[in-house]
Amino acid sequence: MTATTHIPSRVGVFGSFWRDANAVQKAAALIGVTLVLMAVLAQAIAPYDPLQQSLISRLRPPQGFERHKPGFLLGTDELGRDVLSRSLFGLQLTLGLALAGACLGLLIGGTLGLLAGLRRGWAEDVTMAAVDLQIAVPFTLLALLILALFGTSLTVMVCVLGIAGWEQYARIVRAEVRKITELPFIEAARASGGGQRYVALTHVLPNIVSPLVVQFTLSFSNIVILESTLSFLGLGVQPPTATLGTMVGYGRDYMPTAPWLVIAPAALIVLITFSVQILGDWLRDRADVRLRVR
Amino acid sequence: MKTILMTMAATLLAGTAFAQSITVGAANISDYLDPGRDHSNVGSQFYYNSFDTLIDRDHSKLEPEWVPALATEWKLLDDTTMELKLREGVKFHNGEDMTADDVIFSLNRMYQATFAPYLVRSKDRLSNFAEAVKVDNYTVQIKVERPEPLWETLVSLQQVMIIPEDYTKALSGDPEVAEDGDFEAFSLAPVGTGPYAISEFVPGQKLIYSRFDGFWGEQAPLEQATVIRIPETASRITALKTGEADIVTNIAPDQLDLINADPNLKTEGSATALFHVMIMNVNHPNLTDPKLRQALSLAIDRDLLNDALWLGKAVVPSSHTMEEMGELHMPELTTFEYDPEQARKLLAESSYDGEEIVFDAYPVYYTNGVLAAQAITEMWAEVGIKGRVNVSEQWTGSSPEMMTRSWSNPMYFADPFGSFGVMWAPDAASEGAGRFNTDEEYREIWDRFRFSADLEDRKAAYVELMDRIKQDPPVLPLYRPFESWGMHQGINWKPQPGHIPYVLDFRAGAISLADS
Amino acid sequence: MTLYVLRTLAKMALTLLTIITLVFFAARLSGSPLDTFLGDGLTEEDRALMIEYFGLERSVWHQYIAYLRGILDGNFGLSFMERRPVAEIVAERIGPSLQLLGSAIALTLAVSVPLGVVAALWRDSWVGSAVMALAFTGYAVPNFVIATFMVLIFAFVLNWLPVVGNGTALHFIMPTIAMSGVLIAALTRFTRNAMLDVLGQDFMRTARAKGLPETVVILKHGLRNAGVTVLSVLGLQIAGMAAAGNVVIEAIFSWPGIGELLVSAAIIRDYPVLQFGVIAVAFAVVTINALTDIAYVIADPRIRMAKG
């Protein structure tokens, strides 16, 4: 995981990326692509309807074990549903929720950060105060409160995940904007009559893309973990729909007797966060971005 | 490694293995302990060890056999008055003597309730009870409004267990007056006359029973019993395995094999005197047509639910009736059945037009609750009803938007009044919540059922009530859940048939520890 | 310096007031809190009685003012569920949480600082890569997964460790490890990066040039300077992550702490408890942050000058 030194500060083309990667990074990339493909193609590759119950064949172990049910590769769950199909759909939902949440966070944080950086004055004060506020309350608690108050639905969940990481984007964007707007060429652009928006679009945005991509990747795995944790605690999406976290949470009661209910979804969660973490770190090294804690 | 750790653990966890002490891992522990205001399934676990009623019953028997408790004898003076002789020399856990003053204080706090939580219980089961009067220090009279067919039953309720007057009144404010604050304080520091004093109570977390040497009856078999809360099923079973708990509550049938496979452990269970039910809001705009509600009910294969989720150990009833009700147990009635053909037919005739029917369920409160909810919506789909499960801790049963949901109808006392009545009598819980309606005819039938002196008249009236429920159904009892307790081999304990659901009875004769 | 401290304190108070206000109004926005409590067999009349009992019939503004006034008197209201003062309930729970937090932080520091230093010093060898791979794994495995599998193996199968509550020292082992996993991963990475930054600095070269032994250079100059960064991370990230970890870990191990309390309060919608819990934890985090800020300034004079 040692960083390759002296690389240009812009995200390069994929080819050079791959060449410079070490084995772990390549593996992470492959895992990541596989997971995304599995999620996207869930409808096509899942052998069964993930909601199809069969009360007479509940809790059957995976293929190869005693009492297994032919055709159900990873066994069946507490309502006789196919664990493999549920895991695939769970993966789809987990990744979808995390993606939606991360995008929402990027949108909110990016916009506020941009405003704060360009406008300064009260816009900056308010944004930074909100950032401080967000940091003061550990997010899991805030999420508990929001889910308790507004119930558990997909929309609420996406909002919760979205506001989970916005303050990071806001801080990064604001800092980058300030740094960039003080550079001579921006001063020149401004002097030559470019408006705020013009400056923002032509000069600032291209320059903050790479730190944002890196932050997006890093926060993505945090969001996956947050969603899984909330679902594990029973505060996630509603049954019969399940994310990976829900499957682990509900499956936990059967842990000693039917560990396959937990192993498949738990392994998928770990694979997601692991590969995303490594990819994020790799991107960061490549982009040579210093993401500071403060 | 293992030996060292286990020795350490044994030393650190000392107490459980040696003295006559046990630790119980309970899924839930009450947030307060006051037998009067409580009628929850969680609370009913805890009162019988520490409190007494005037009249008790032999809990080892299914049929009621009344036995003297704090009253040694009782007789009816007339239709509406019972006179009871109190046991002398009874002491409360705090050392006070129990006299008629304590008894009438305890009874009248319910009969003439002013404290809101008492009022609720007083209305739903004790509304016929007017007052308790002191005759002398060891004689009291209880007066009712109308001749009461269920005298002993209603005098042996958990809600009318006896608590000390002076102690309670002195808990807050004016020591001479019973204020709301006194009852609030009592529920955190409860005192009774039973064989175990509650020596420590951390609401929702922990409860310690200690043997009360001043108990009037046979001494408690255990020196101490500690109840700790272990909400997660997996943790409860693990705690049983690691020896952190000697008994654990609320074990689902799926887990029984796991415990029984361990030679040191065993399980005891019974089909509890309680129905898991599905309720239907008769006043929801989409559900006003009785045919639709009949279809919702007929579509559910309760035997399959029983076989799959309860391994066939639950009991599926044909009517809202239980064997505990003795003469009034009427299994011959067919109020509820499974008939998908009929369901499809009624559905076609009904106003149903593909609307989504929401089934609300608590996430963990009822064993297998969420699983049953999901299976039920699948069964609906089979006959062409579109269902959706909504899992939430929110109690939606009083909301006009509620369509269907899971609930329970426990047997609060051994009479149809004590299970069906508390929930479905006129103005009782269901009608009060706005999801069930009664009319003049229903009221008249109920009145006959409630107050007829002749058992046959009561039975006939109950048949009519069940017929009304069948024609315009607001409820479907799913089954009596099979509730199990896991424990170490050395413990002789099992649920007794004469108790209301979930009672952890640790009195003499109910539990013993093998010498090991 | 005094000015800086005062400003930090003022900011802290303002943050807390804002949090209290937001939490209070959010709670009132979402409908009647009593729905959850009117469970089996209660009627509309009972609801009315309960509303009066908890003072919910007054306007939201009245309730808000009353709540703020209560807080000044140290009265945070009654729990809906337990009907006793919230502060009393939370007070019972705070000790166990702090014990667990303390042991997790101790374990984290003991493991991750040496690991981070090792990873930085041997950054180009397999040792460094192995440490970092471990750190990634720790970061990738959610603590509830670690906890679930540990319980299965060490308690259920092997019967080595207890799983319920905080009775003895043995009870601390699994929750502490489960909670520390992610913290160790995070802090190892931060320590490594901070050390790498420091190792390249001029004063390190100077120290070496002066002929000081390498261990002294690293421990005295390197670690001490990297420590500033590590300290700030500990204050900020760790407090947040630990609070999050507490919630899940306490629920899994029936640990009688704040996290377990708040999860059940969230599930049954006991708003007064949840409100106070969020406020109390926010207070703790804000305080830790403020203290870290001040400590940070004291430790590194350059920042003091920059911050003014």
Automatic annotation (TrEMBL), chain A:
It comes from the Bacteria. The chain crosses the membrane at residues 27-48, 88-115, 135-164, 257-280. Belongs to the binding-protein-dependent transport system permease family. It is found in: Cell membrane. This is ABC transporter permease. It is a multi-pass membrane protein. PROSITE patterns: ABC_TM1. InterPro entries: BP-dependent_transpt_permease, MetI-like. Keywords: Membrane, Transmembrane, Transmembrane helix, Transport. Its main location: membrane. Residues 91-280 form the ABC transmembrane type-1 domain. The keyword Membrane applies.
TrEMBL record, chain B:
Its main location: periplasm. It holds the Pfam family SBP_bac_5. Residues 1-19 form the signal peptide. Keywords: Signal. It is found in: Periplasm. Residues 65-414 form the Solute-binding protein family domain. Belongs to the bacterial solute-binding protein 5 family. This is ABC transporter substrate-binding protein.
From TrEMBL, chain C:
It is found in: Cell membrane. The chain crosses the membrane at residues 100-122, 134-157, 169-187, 228-253, 273-299. It is a multi-pass membrane protein. Keywords: Cell membrane, Membrane, Transmembrane, Transmembrane helix, Transport. InterPro entries: MetI-like. Pfam families: BPD_transp_1. The keyword Transmembrane helix applies. Residues 94-292 form the ABC transmembrane type-1 domain. Belongs to the binding-protein-dependent transport system permease family. This is ABC transporter permease.
